[in-house]
Amino acid sequence: GAVVSQHPSWVICKSGTSVKIECRSLDFQATTMFWYRQFPKQSLMLMATSNEGSKATYEQGVEKDKFLINHASLTLSTLTVTSAHPEDSSFYICSAWEGVTYEQYFGPGTRLTVT
Amino acid sequence: GNSVTQMEGPVTLSEEAFLTINCTYTATGYPSLFWYVQYPGEGLQLLLKATKADDKGSNKGFEATYRKETTSFHLEKGSVQVSDSAVYFCALSDSGGGADGLTFGKGTHLIIQP
User: With an 8 Å Cβ cutoff, is A21 touching chain B?
Assistant: First the structure.
């Protein structure tokens, strides 16, 4: 099946710094990718929809200036958490939409800890 | 807005037991419904889906029927195995395959004991 990777799998950063998370579709092209956030024992919350070559669409309540999304190619989307604070610590998961099978394929997630 | 409610775990069963994980939803239109499974250290995988009322999704012995009248999509399996131990997420989308993004339940941790 289709494979989506994320890098890094976990990252620790200091408060005030920025961190970038990559999401790649390894064996298919994805015009649309999604970014989710998951708190402990909570559901995945859709943060934004990333479309190749255009601006991301953010869900209500998600700060677009804090969570910068770039989808510069058909296989790569990046999420940059700017000026990170401890409350940004979470598990970030991306998925990619596969237009042939009409399915979303999920990456394994990135654990972000802000100290 | 859309929402999904599923029973919270952990759910602990013995091997070969019957499994039901309840899922109900709230949606404004006619959503597509999904069950995803997450094994330790791996990303979510689609287990099954149903795109319209009365559809039954099935895969690997798991089944779920889209019940519009009760707004439910309960997951069932007749005889569970240790290898079924995982976290199961119920989800919905306003589009057929989730092209618009998914709304998830909180997940149910299933533990199968030999």
Answer: no
